[in-house]
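user: Kindly work through both lines:
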Amino acid sequence: MKEKLLSINASIPLTAIQEAMVIAGISILSFFIPFIMGYPQWLVGTIINACLFSAVLFLPKKYFLPVTVLPSLGILARGVIFGLFTPFLVYFLPFIWLSNIILIVAFTLFISQLDKKNRIFLFLSVFAAASLKFFVLYLTANLYLNFKLVPAVFLQTMGLNQLATGIAGGIIATLIYGKFNSRSQRAD
């Protein structure tokens, strides 16, 4: 008996089992990578951003919200990345979630307007979405620092590190998407 293929955001058809595996994989990675690894931020952040971009490319929209929230809950549960600064992370949670949603929505909008098969447009979409996420988090960190709510370390953590890991994660996700998309086209 042949399984019904599901249509998702990307043009890659998946069976129900494959879709469930992708959902579980991205959700598990989103929470447990920050919880288990904790640091270095460049590696954890890159993996998490790859999960966020992959959610857009591979998952139905109804699964976007959990992927935006799970990583920061993993970091908070672990309490190691910021060490003594972990309580300050609570101030950032709504803005981390908001910036993740902005990244996902922006990337979704950008790729819906562009040819997803053209990698240059995908990479430009990654850069634009990661830049928006960076802008929200850096602006928030600056604001909190000016009000003396958080220490200066958060400017770096919520600043260029976010931009770099966002772009790196997006590139990884688009490369994986390209690999699966080319396999899917060859199978047709």
